[in-house]
Design goal:
Distance between the termini: 11 Å
Number of strands: 2
Strand order of the largest sheet: 1-2
Order of helices and strands: EHEH
CATH class: Alpha Beta
Structural class: alpha+beta
Helix content: 25-40%
CATH topology: Rossmann fold
Number of domains: 1
Shape: flat
Strand content: 15-25%
Length: 64
Amino acid sequence: MAAEPCRPASADRDPRLIEQIAEEAGATVGGTLYSDALASAGPASTYLGMFEYNLDTLMQALQP
């Protein structure tokens, strides 16, 4: 059985488009990533926190 592909979405974008693309491609959305916009609070409120959060999200999304 092949692994189901996933694509993380950006936190500062409307998720509807990526959800539609994922559905049509037979994939799943593998989490939310922060890009150049830091969160006002929480795990992505600093650059290091954003980096760690994104890395954890990517690693979790790529698990078989």
